[in-house]
Amino acid sequence: MTAHGKQTEYQTGGFEPKIMAYVCNWCTYAGADLAGTSRMEYRPNVRIIKLPCTGRIDPLFIIKAFENGADGVLVSGCHPGDCHYTTGNYHARRRWIGFKNLMEFTGIDMRRLHFSWVSASEAIKWVDLINKVTDEIKQLGPFMEYKGLKGK
Amino acid sequence: MPRIGIFVCQCGNNIAATVDTKKVAEEMARLPGVVFACDYKFMCSSPGQDMLKQAIKDNRLDKVIVSACSPHMHEKTFRKASEAAGLNPYQCEITNIREQCSWVHHDKTKAAGTAKSIDLTRMTIERLKKNKPLKKINIPIKKKALVIGGGIAGIQAALDIAEGGREVILVEREPSIGGNMARLSETFPTMDCSQCILTPKMVEVELNEKITLYTYSEIEKVDGYIGNFIVQIRRKAKYVDEERCTGCGECIEKCPFKVESQFEMKLAKRKVIYTPFPQSVPNVPVIDAPNCPKIQKDKCGACAVVCGPKCIDFKMEDRIITEDVGAIIVATGYELMPNERFGEYGYGRIKDVISGMQFERLASSSGPTGGEIRRPSDGKTPASVVFIQCAGSRDEKKGVSYCSKVCCMYTAKHTMLYHHKVHEGQSYVFYMDIRAGGKRYEEFVRRAIEHDNAMYLRGRVSRVYEKDGKVIVQGADTLSGNQVEIEADMVVLATAIVSRTGADTVAQKLGIGYDKYKFYNEYHPKLKPVETVTAGIFLSGACMGPMDIPDSVAQGSAAAAKALSLFSSDEMMREPITAVVNKPTCNACWDCVTACPYSAIERDTVKNRDGVVVRWLAKVNDGVCQGCGVCVAACRSKAIDLKGYTDEQVYAAINAF
Ligand SMILES: Cc1cc2nc3c(=O)[nH]c(=O)nc-3n(C[C@H](O)[C@H](O)[C@H](O)COP(=O)(O)OP(=O)(O)OC[C@H]3O[C@@H](n4cnc5c(N)ncnc54)[C@H](O)[C@@H]3O)c2cc1C
Ligand code: SF4
Ligand code: SF4
Ligand code: FES
Questions:
Q1: CA dihedral angle for residue B547, residue B553, residue B555, residue B558, rounded to 10 degrees
Q2: Which domain holds residue A29?
Q3: Which of residues 4-63 of A touch B (CB under 8 A)?
Q4: Which domains are delineated in chain B?
Q5: What pTM was computed for the model?
Q6: Chain B partners within 8 Å of A59 (Cβ)
């Protein structure tokens, strides 16, 4: 497939899930950078979108990711109490609690949606998280329910 | 159609080892809007940057992407280079294909790394298409500081700022500056007399032309943001005209009424018209209105009769004044846990159980006993004194969980002062641990034990009671394992240091954080120890937690240095990542106002030609907004967006997933 299409595939033999990660700039993005500077290794299925804070993340972003072919979505930011903007992640957490119920109601398998706290120093946690989520979604198989929605 | 340029960095072999950079460039070149794409050995090198600039000019690029290392590394570099080539810096975006791709995917066939780099760059391209030019925000800076609290920390901060050539307003709640240090007798670890080292500084404050001192005043309201605070100050009625008062003290002399002196920790009385202590700055008395019969029921007025310059005015009222300042330093200090909390140690029942601060007053040559150690009940010189440390500290159940930090040191000091003044006297100290971590502090405590005969007993006091004019103290000495009973003449409690009553109200006016004990929170406990989450507001001294004088002074100077460095330029530049309200769609639900962690959103009005309010809407204050975007996700009408991270930009990236 070319760059024009959806997520670029490469030959591995099996199903390679596509995972979207929404992360905050200050903790998780920096933690993911640290995994790189420490030359750790993890599954290449994740595509990161950086936002200033988890508080900026609109639940619609998650639905849109599924519509665009994501098989799993990950949201990660600073630990409670550590948000660069003091309380942004509390807002995010409150929002997600409501949102989770809605997702469950619409029948999305909650194993496809992960919320986590990864600090700027937790490169190992980031690596483990990506590997765990990728493997879990591999098991679940492709997410088909929303694929038609986009009309593309 | 935009004219986008893509620059894929090989980073030597750092990226190229696991990403086929040439292929990434080729793939990107095919996307609509991309008119130029290449890969290059080191984009951040100066030839790399020159290449970028040249390509922008040659190909008339209006937007560029550098797919390279993390934006945390070189976003600034490439934005600057783009700007030099005539682009708006915010038309340059970075794709992170090193830290988050080539370095974490070790696949030597380059398949995974290349595929991911293509995807990430494609997402960035679509996002970039929606980028709007942004302009850094210029914030003008008012080069004047406000210091709240005139204890040693606030005094130091004010003097340093004035020394740096800037104007300072010092607001003190009491009739005089000086704070708690003014009460101390001698100070550890050097035993200089507190008044002797403090008074000259207080006088300096009064004489310094750059410092405007408002005593008997409090902060009423704070608006604005860094560089541009608008502060309302309540100047409480002193009933004495400060300008005309000569400080002769005739009025105090003649006033027939007395009440307990707070400054003397209730060990003495003062007049109703008073200065807290003889060296007060300013040396202008105030009338304690609730206790003045003239003001309350128009009886007396003796002071006005004797006042030569006729500066007493019983009709004086509070005034609110407004000041514009660029920075604020909070130095409101501490209080002591009220003695009344220590009924278990006999306080209240037994007159000769006093607090450490009361002992300071007894030992002070300007105190109620002229510096002689005499006990409150009968004025006798105590032949033995028991000091109880950690009264209320380090005990969540009975007081506070933290250590009050200065009590070990001042108790050692008290035993010395006692021994110096009462040579035959015996002091006992009940302690839990000795914390003497400062420079020359351990030596100081050892001196108390070895030279000044202090008997240290490790353990808790279980009971304090009165018997035949003695105070009996029962406790455990855990080191020897014995129960001890001491017949003392006086007991001194090292009561816990607590935050100021009303510290939370002050914090809320300022928009700064505080902990569960209402001590103010620094921005970062290690790296930003005098900053607060609110830009332009700094902290110093014991308002942040128990602290001794050397630390309070160091922090006063640190906060002053922060303010001075802010004042070193006329304006400050800020990243333009701020929220903006779309006026037509805002329905004034104020969800954003509640969500914003910085109170950056105001309730604004739209008026018609006749000045009548026709509607309300949210308005973001650019100076205060920190760009977190919490408001954007909170707004159900999608009426507020975040520049640099607009919904349009984010969705464009998601759609290119
Ligand atoms: C018994 C005892 C003995 C001590 N002995 C020593 C010693 O020997 N050596 C040593 O280094 N340290 C000693 N200390 C500690 C010392 O007192 C403090 O380190 C020091 O006083 C802290 O100064 P500060 O300016 O931060 O606070 P403070 O001295 O409390 O000053 C704060 C000032 O702010 C004013 N204020 C408060 N709220 C407001 C408001 N809302 N608006 C306007 N003004 C306000 C207050 O009136 C006060 O003037 C001792 C402490 C105690 C309790
Ligand atoms: S949340 Fe949205 S609609 Fe409500 S006041 Fe703020 S901008 Fe206006
Ligand atoms: S972006 Fe954050 S700081 Fe700015 S107005 Fe919105 S919530 Fe407040
Ligand atoms: S900045 Fe990381 S969650 Fe708010």
A1: -170
A2: 19-140
A3: 4, 6-11, 18, 20, 29-30, 32-37, 39-42, 44, 47-53, 55-59, 61
A4: 4-129 (3.40.50), 137-236+318-333+508-569 (3.50.50.60), 238-316 (no CATH), 336-498 (3.50.50.60), 579-655 (3.30.70.3270)
A5: 0.78
A6: 633
